[in-house]
Amino acid sequence: MRFARRSSSRLELLALAVDQNDNNNSSSMMEKPVSAAPNNKFQYSKAKIDASMALLVKECSLMAEILSKKVPKVRFGKTELQMPILTLGCMRFQQSWNHGPAEKNVLSLDKVTDECQENLVRILKHAISTGVTHIETAKGYGSSELQLGAAFKEVFDSGICKREDLIIQTKGGVSSSMTIAQYKQLIIEQVQRLQLDYVDLFSVHGLNMDDDLKHLFEDCGPNEKGENKGNLYQALVELKEEGIIRHIGFSSHGRADLIKRAIETDAFEYCNIHYHFCGSYTCSGDGVYGGNLENVRLATQKHDMGLFIISPYDKGGRLYAPSNKLRDLCLPDMEPMTYGSAWLWQHEEHDPEGAPIHTIVCGAGRPSDLDQPLVAAAWMQQDPQDVSERRRRIAERIQTALEDIGNKDDDDNNNNKEWCQTWHVGLPNWHGAEQGTQLGNIVWLYNCIKGLGMLDFARDRYGSMEGNFASWDSTVTKQENVEKNMTPMFNWCPGCAFDKSWNYTHDLKDCPKENQAQLLEAIQFVHEWCAKANYETPNAEEESSSDEKKVDPDKQPEPVLGIGNGKRHTT
After folding, report:
1. Does residue 565 register a pLDDT over 80?
2. By CB count within 10 A, which of 219, 376, 400, 513 is most buried?
């Protein structure tokens, strides 16, 4: 998804605030009030409106400043690269994802439109001019590598920059059928598409499942042609020795424990993972801290790895189109995109164990998509103390909002804090749940909706779980479901949605007893508000007959969870 809905109409939003009406536009994440949630209509004082206008003026001056200076750089772990704190992600500006019929795939530049390539070159030049010199792509991003290759040649030939001025990263996955020779050849072809002699960073793309680690590090015997597959990691070692790869890393949308195992191999110099102020995307609910915090500390402090944060503006809360409530919690100190950036860049400052985060990525579909992240980077450079103070104030307001989620029947603030600290304890995601339900993620979405008003964000995330649920067969094992019934996207967006017929009490047996009732309510709450059948009308003709399916915002979910008959829909 491109940032087309990101709020470039900032003045319009402020004008709407002046009008005392925050039912502002289609990017609102709270189309209607959520039961038992704070009111989403915010009454702005004149002081807050004035402060928000002053923030807009400040951001304009910061944008002018970044054009004359450069994005700050930091040491990228044991790679010793000087990494800009902002990375250009290259998965949103290509001509094609190459997922369709072979005849429609874009495999040569003559199939790329002038408009698309010119836009890509403008984005690349804008990034380089502001010091965003880390460029990140992947084989899985369709024609991205192909188009970047032509763009790199253009900027090098024109003297805009030299090859050594850029840190270029690409990624490629592994499979059960690959041999060492095949994996090497695929990577060499990637580097050739980029029209380069080497890449600074190569990531094993999508270490998401146990089998991915197995394929990479274990000798899995012969493939279907009788060829010895060997240890695929050896291919990376050989390419590094040959100078085609400078540094080896991995990216993951996988479970926190799987990421931990990958880090602990000590085979990688850096990693790309999800970790944001509001959660850790697909592994939210995992691990000791309910996400990837343990891995952030492990990677940077114990293994001196470079740390790259995936999708802070989309999977990190859809900050380019924030909910009304989240924006209200951030203003007038910062815009949500600025806060999300600062929270990561200043992680070493506010994490009790001082773990740093080195770079975060912005996937740009047009040059202006970089504007808000560049503003944040300029502010960090100009006045980090001011950024720190504003970030701290916002963090306190967000923490208060999340603590208000606590036990609705008990006004004891200690109980509210207890929920914030323990909601994930003992709570499994799909890998540990009996029927593959993504329970940890679902309860995380409950917190996002009730605390931060992030309903549209939650619906996006829950939609993939509904898709998985539709193909899940409870009569076979989880492994068989993953291998036979799920699409490849399950590895990237795993787990199933809630099933009303299933008894979840056994899945919650390791959760604190005082949390179990609210966990059950939370799971149903998310389903009631995020299942497409509850908020989408198929067509106008059916609208009148679908009223009973619409969620009543004043009605609490019926207490039916945990008492199902244990049967599940099958396909």
Report:
1. no
2. 376
